[in-house]
């Protein structure tokens, strides 16, 4: 709700009287209080806006004159906000809401020995009528851009088996977790994440830097901050990933005490500084 500034009553009266000078309708109610008089020009402008005889240039002149002196009405008593559970539900008007449920990306293509079917945000890969794997459409597109669709389809069985093994043993960190890690550490490359579950918050993500299973191959510049994920890797994989790690540059390593290889632990302590341990 808007009102006119009280120190500009003369201007407010001008804005109220000006429409009458053009022979246009205005409210004729006598406003007794200052608050009522401050709202009178607003009500007149609303009335003029619904009047077919109101010329656009006239209404524009009035709005430009009054606009610099408008402000939000002060609230006499603030309503205590007790959180989202107490908020009134928002309901859409059926006649004003329109939903489109058609999946424009749905379809299937044959690529070499593979058949790729897309539907409802998922990509299902088949070979010879047998199910190879199902991947989220966004992740399939990200990896297909790095590898090509046919090469990606060939890598799916091994990648899916790798994920299933991790989920039954050490688990897989959530996408929300990695998004927060990237935001706090400002990392632009993560190592040690499996391609199907690596966080897209990082511009580069590889399981191992040597094999570069993941994405970011097209980026020519060197990463400025690398995050080493040792949370779910086996001890041989930890040794392979941290081979050649030195004290130079900017990097962070996330480890799990119960699963950290002793040799890798010594290497991290020798060339890095422990920031947190629990």
Describe, in plain words, how this protein is organized in 3D.
This protein folds into 3 domains: 2-72, no CATH class; 107-167, no CATH class; 175-271, no CATH class. It is 35% helix and 17% strand. It is built from 8 helices and 11 strands. It has helices spanning 9-21, 34-49, 56-66, 137-147, 149-167, 175-185, 235-241, 262-271, and strands at 2-4, 70-72, 107-111, 114-119, 122-127, 130-136, 189-191, 204-206, 214-215, 226-229, 251-254. The strands form 3 sheets. It has a 5-stranded mixed β-sheet. The protein has a 4-stranded antiparallel β-sheet with strand order 3-4-5-6. Helix 1 packs parallel to helix 2, helix 1 (9-21) runs antiparallel to helix 3 and helix 2 runs antiparallel to helix 3. The protein starts with a strand and ends in a 7-residue tail after the last helix.
Short recap of the structure:
It is built from 8 helices and 11 strands. The protein has 3 domains: 71 residues, no CATH class; 61 residues, no CATH class; 97 residues, no CATH class.
Q: What's the topology here?
A:
Layout: E1 2-4, H1 9-21, H2 34-49, H3 56-66, E2 70-72, E3 107-111, E4 114-119, E5 122-127, E6 130-136, H4 137-147, H5 149-167, H6 175-185, E7 189-191, E8 204-206, E9 214-215, E10 226-229, H7 235-241, E11 251-254, H8 262-271
Quick one: overall form? Answer: elongated
Structural category: alpha/beta
**H-E order:** EHHHEEEEEHHHEEEEHEH
Cα(first) to Cα(last) distance is 53 Å
- Integer tally of domains: 3
The count of β-strands is 11
Helix tally equals 8
**Uncertain stretches of 5 or more adjacent residues:** 4-24
Please state roughly what percent of the residues sit in beta strands, choosing from under 5%, 5-15%, 15-25%, 25-35%, 35-45% or over 45%.
15-25%
What is the radius of gyration? 32 Å
- What portion of residues is helical? 25-40%
Largest sheet: 5 strands, mixed
Strand order of the largest sheet: 9-8-7-10-11
In quaternary terms, these chains amount to single chain
The overall average pLDDT, rounded, is 81
